[in-house]
Amino acid sequence: MTNNKMPPMLPHIEALGTYEGVDPMEVMAERSGIPSEKIIRLNGNENPYGPSPKVAAALGDYPNFNYYPDPGQRNLRQVLSGYLNVDPERIVAGNGSDELIDLLLRMYVGVGDNVIIPTPTFGMYTFSTGICGGETISVERDNWFEINLEAMKSAVTTKSKIIFLTSPNNPTGNIVPEAQTRALLDTGLLVVMDEAYFEFCGETAIPLLSEYPNLVVLRTFSKWAGLAGLRIGVAAMDPDLAATMMAMKPPYNVNLAAEVALTTSLKDTPSLLERVAQIVEERSRMMEKLKQVPSLTPWPSRANFILCEVPDGRGKEIFEGLCSRGIFLRYWSKGRLKNFIRTSIGLPHETDAVVEAFRELCS
User: Each residue of 16-35: pLDDT tens digit?
Assistant: First the structure.
């Protein structure tokens, strides 16, 4: 007789909600009834120009994909040392920044512990904390989406382990001032500064690493280098913390294709930064055009996206109207952002289509 019983799942895993990622183009096309080649996909903060053209050639020429990557990340860490301007022993690379967030949480957070975030912010912190059985303490930002520093410090408990900050913040686009970063580092908690959009603003907490062993800085090659599909993220931190993470991470966590793409991208940094400059220029153009749309309020941004406030109570209606036109942006159906829609910065013709659709739908 077959025993169909299984051991009980961990309660906090069983209760976990699904993180809402970005649908593939084919799903968007099916939903809107518009051919995939005509879809405008600006909901993932992806790079509209794609990776360096040298990446495809390097991947095609690489002869050793039959071998495992280096578990010690020796070449990666050396190459990234020049990019981050920190010593190699401070660096750990991951399968996207998401993996590095997960590793940090597993190092510090157990059932009953908590992390602190200024909300609204990137949803992965809360999701990954839940996987560890931890609790997320969300501290509301002020009316201008700036961090409420005193409320953040007051939220710290004996069970608090990590403070997550994003600069520029996703989805609001504003940066964390250095004085606030220092004040939160002075709490003694681990402070993780997620700089996924650094190249679009040029401001970093990297210089503070030499002063604060409790600081971790995250970067990604998904946005500025156009490598979102290859999943490569980087963390800079205290050397002892990095050594521990290197010892406990999966040995082959960064695949060889991602490593080849990263090293090739860094060799082509000037060309990629020219594209970043184009995106920043298009951000300014899009902001000016969005300001001219009646009943729409675009919020200032230092990233590769703009958060737009739509008329009260009409967020879902306008979002669905955009989708029906084959324009897919990011919408939050509840909470403080229910009247907000975020658009990534795309190509100029995509900007024009988004602005025109907002003009029609917000009237």
Answer: 888 877 888 788 878 888 88
Instruction: Tell me, rounded to whole angstroms, the distance of Cα 133 from its chain centroid.
Output: 22
Q: Residue 228: helix, strand or coil by DSSP? A: helix
Tokens of 322: 């955009």
- Specify burial of residue 274 (Cβ count, 10 A radius: 0-12, 13-18, 19+): exposed
Segments in 219-330 forming alpha helices (H): 239-248, 256-267, 269-291, 315-324
pTM exceeds 0.90 for this model: yes
Q: 154 burial class (0-12, 13-18, 19+ CB within 10 angstroms)?
A: exposed
In CATH, the number for domain 22-50+269-362 is: 3.90.1150.10
**Rounded Cα gap, residues 355 and 343, in angstroms:** 10
Task: Give the separation between CA 361 and CA 288, rounded to whole angstroms.
Answer: 18
Pick the CATH number of 70-254 from 3.90.550.10, 3.10.20.310, 3.40.640.10, 3.40.50.300: 3.40.640.10
Contact 193, 224 (CB under 8 A): no
- Domain boundaries of the chain, sorted by first residue: 22-50+269-362, 70-254
Residue type (1 letter), 351: T
- DSSP β-ladder status, 215-220 and 190-194: parallel
pLDDT at position 2: 64
Nearest-angstrom CA–CA distance, 122 and 320: 22
